[in-house]
Amino acid sequence: MNWRVLLTIAVGSLVLFALLFDEETVTNPFPEFALEDGLTSTPVSKSAMEGEAWVAYISASWCGHCHPTLDAVDQVIPADRLLVFNKDPREEHSDMVAWNEDMEAAFERELARPFIHGPNMSEELGVVGIPHVFYIDAEGNIEFDRKGLWTNMDEMSEVWNQTLAA
Questions:
Q1: What is the number of H-type helices and E-type strands within the chain?
Q2: What is the rounded CA–CA span in Å between residue 92 and residue 134?
Q3: Where do the structural domains in the chain lie, given as residue ranges?
């Protein structure tokens, strides 16, 4: 066999080996935050959520077309694993109690979720369109995100289960 062919095979094998076994894990961490639940004045932080998967729902109190997404995600995600964030920085849209009450009236049920005024965090994430839903793994990394109207609870549940397994 020609030594050039052997050399080519050897180099190719080394490159393939390096690609297969020297994987670098690419992570997309959710930004650090330390904010307050606008309903209970309880501190809420990324570090307090880590250790288990969770979901961040980002919207605004005035977003009427966002209601169906919040309604669906609220029915899929376990009680202590969903945080509702307001992205609108304007003072007139910072009342989390009023937003929660409006949603409870619209859905005709209690929403026992933290409602958090978080425009700076939303900006850091680059959220422009709403609603925007982020699924975060137990390590604090974004596993999935989706913006726009989303009401398919089967899909939401499937993504939740994948996030739990991550």
A1: 6, 7
A2: 25
A3: 28-165
Q: How far apart are CA 79 and CA 111, in angstroms?
A: 9
Please give the angle made by the CA atoms of 78, 81 and 82, to the nearest 5 degrees. 95
> 28-165: CATH homologous superfamily?
Glutaredoxin (3.40.30.10)
Backbone angles phi, psi at 137, to 5 degrees: -80, 175
Crossing angle, helix 67-76 and helix 153-165, to 10 degrees?
50
Beta-carbon contacts of 117 under 8 Å, excluding residues fewer than 6 positions away, are 35, 36, 38, 85, 86, 94, 96
The distance of Cα 81 from the centroid of its chain, to the nearest Å, equals 11
Q: Where are the beta strands (DSSP E) in the chain?
A: 34-36, 43-45, 54-59, 82-86, 115-117, 132-136, 142-147
Contacts of 80 by beta carbon, 8 Å cutoff, 6+ apart = none
pLDDT per residue as tens, the chain (166 positions): 565 655 455 545 444 444 444 434 457 999 999 999 999 999 999 999 999 999 999 999 999 999 999 999 999 999 899 999 999 999 999 999 999 999 999 999 999 999 999 999 999 999 999 999 999 999 999 999 999 999 999 999 999 999 999 8
- Which pair of tokens denotes residue 98? 């009023």
